[in-house]
Specification:
Number of strands: 0
Largest sheet: none
Distance between the termini: 17 Å
Structural class: mainly alpha
Helix content: 55-70%
Order of helices and strands: HHHH
Shape: globular
């Protein structure tokens, strides 16, 4: 899904190099998640059960376009 790719690219371009090892690991967890599940999370149609991943989803959604 192109929209998900754009969110991920935005994070990589703006945040990756300054991110802690822990934050990078959470981002990599997101990358390993199925696109359908990510779409539901980012659209608010399904809650993110893992608090760390929930924080990462919220962080990505707050990045300006």
């Amino acid at each position: 899904m192109r929209e998900l790719d754009q969110l991920m690219e935005r994070y990589l371009d703006r945040c990756w190099f300054e991110a802690s090892t822990e934050e990078r690991a959470r981002f990599e967890q997101l990358l390993a998640t199925e696109d359908d599940k990510l779409w539901r999370w980012f659209m608010g149609r399904e809650p993110v059960d893992d608090p760390a991943l929930r924080g990462m989803v919220e962080r990505l959604l707050q990045l300006p376009p």
